[in-house]
Every structure is written in C-alpha cells, then in structure tokens.
Amino acid sequence: MLAVDYSAVPVVVTQKSKRSSSAWFDPEEGVIKVILSNRLPKAEAEKVAATLVERVRKKLVRRIRVPPRRRVYEDGEAIRSGGKWLILSIKETEFRKHPAARIEGSTLLVVLPSGMHYQTQRRAVSALIREHWAKSEYARLLLLADEISRKYFNAETPIEDVEITRQNTRWANICRDRIVRLSVRALFLPKDLLEYLMVHELAHLKAGLHAQHGPGYRRALAEAEPDWRKKERELAVWSHIVPVHD
Ligand SMILES: [Zn+2]
After folding, report:
1. Is the residue at 201 inside a domain?
2. Ligand 1 centroid – CA 61 distance (Å)
3. How far is the CA of 166 from the centre of ligand 1 (A)?
4. What is the pLDDT along the chain (246 residues), one digit of tens a residue?
5. What is the distance between the alpha carbons of residues 143 and 198, in angstroms, rounded to a whole number?
6. What's the gap in Å between 218 CA and the centre of ligand 1?
C-alpha cells in the first residue's frame, strides 16, 4: 500500500517585515515555504509557523485518493471514486458465486454471495472498491491522453492504451506498442505535473521513438511545453516526495 508522508517535506522559514504571515508548497524546490511577519512576538512565531505548515500539509494530502485496503466499508456510506461521491450499497444474494460491483446512478452496488464469512466479506468489499477506483483512474488517464494529444500535438499522437504499472524507477514510459505506461506513483502527482508527464510521453511519439531524449525530441517537447526544464525539475523533486513501494 502506498502512502505519502508529507511530514517529510522540508520547511523553510524566513522573517519579513510584512503584516501577515503565509505558507505555501513550492513544487520546484520541494519545500514548504513560510514567511513570518516580524511583528509577531517571539513566543507566538513558532506556533503560527506550525499552524501554517500544518494547513499546507493538509492541502497536499488531499491529492491522495487511493482507497485503503484495510478499511472496513459500511453499507450506505459515501465513498469517493473517479472524482465523484458514490453511495456504497452492499447486498447479499444466493444467486451469485462471486462478489461483484457495478455503478447504478450515484450508487456503487456491491453484491456478495450470501453466507460469506464476515472477514472474507470485508476483504471482498475493499478489493472491489479498490478495483473500481483503479478503473475510474484508468478512464481518467485515457481521457487525459486524448485531451493532451489534441491540445498540444494537433491530435497527431494517438495512443493505443494507458497502463498503470508498479515501476518505481521511472514515472512513465512509452514503447512501439503506443501504450503509455504510468507508474502508480504518478497518480500522486499534482494535476499539472501528471499532465506534463503525459506531454513528455506523447512528445516521444511526435518526435519518433528513435529520437530518444535527443535534440529532435527536445524540439517537439519545447513546442508543446516551453517550460519543460522547470517541469522536469519539479518531477525530480516529487520523486523524493512520493515514496517507492516494495
Ligand atoms: Zn522520456
């Protein structure tokens, strides 16, 4: 199970002659920056900084939406999947041999064979919810690839498919089969970086795979994203923030 520990993101605090204090995450440097007003009494400064940092970390954490494996899901609860809220409905039936899930309107209906052991039932529900989540992510990535192709490459870079892989050493890659393979870690990236990642991969199609990361490739990439150097630096920073899995 992947979990991102944002408490590991370093904090840089500076004091300035400003009326109010503020904090934000700088994706290029991979640090949380805090500006403290020098009007704050010393005793308060530390507390204010801690509160501001906590707020920024909370915002970062909201980007993670992988349904946890070990959670117990209750019938009737609202779960978030594929960017929207669904009501979970768990039903038992004698007519089924295997657990299954489907969407009905705004309900995620999970049907279980009756007589299942409580523990097995719990595991089956959470596995189905995770599977549904993965499918909705897949749909989202397919749409993203299509959108990026139209927006940046004149629709000249159609892909065959998107796959979510468990690779740790790279964010993504693309081969002759025109399948974009994304590390599951990439799903933890901020939206703009995930988009850039897709731009990076599609630029390989535009330039021709033989071009690798050479001048021809960089030309195609720069045409689509003039700021690509900055984006690559940000990706490098995020590779320390999103941990690898075993
Ligand atoms: Zn590349």
Report:
1. yes
2. 28
3. 17
4. 344 455 667 788 899 998 999 999 887 777 889 999 989 888 888 889 889 988 888 777 545 556 777 788 999 998 877 667 889 999 999 998 999 999 898 999 999 999 999 999 999 999 999 888 888 888 889 999 999 999 999 999 999 999 888 888 899 999 999 999 998 888 888 888 999 999 999 999 999 999 999 999 999 999 999 999 999 998 988 887 776 665
5. 11
6. 10
Q: To which residue do tokens 């970062």 refer? A: 60
Domains in the chain, number: 3
228: left (phi over 0), alpha (psi -120 to 50) or beta: alpha
Report the interhelical angle of 228-241 vs 215-224 (nearest 10°): 90
Tell me the C-alpha to C-alpha distance, in Å, between residue 135 and each of 17, 35, 66, 128: 50, 42, 12, 10
CA of 152 from ligand 1 middle (Å) equals: 16
Domain ranges, residue 86:
78-137
Nearest-10 Cα torsion for 152, 158, 163, 168 = -50
Same structural domain, 56 and 82: no
